[in-house]
Amino acid sequence: MSTPIPTEMEFRQKTRVLSIAFDDGKYFELPYEYLRVYSPSAEVRGHAPGDEVLQYGKKGVNIEKIDPVGTYAVSLHFDDGHNTGIYSWDWLYHLGINHIQLWQEYLDKLEQAGKKREPES
Question: Which candidate, 45, 41, 59, 38, places its Cα nearest to that of 101?
Answer without folding.
Answer: 38
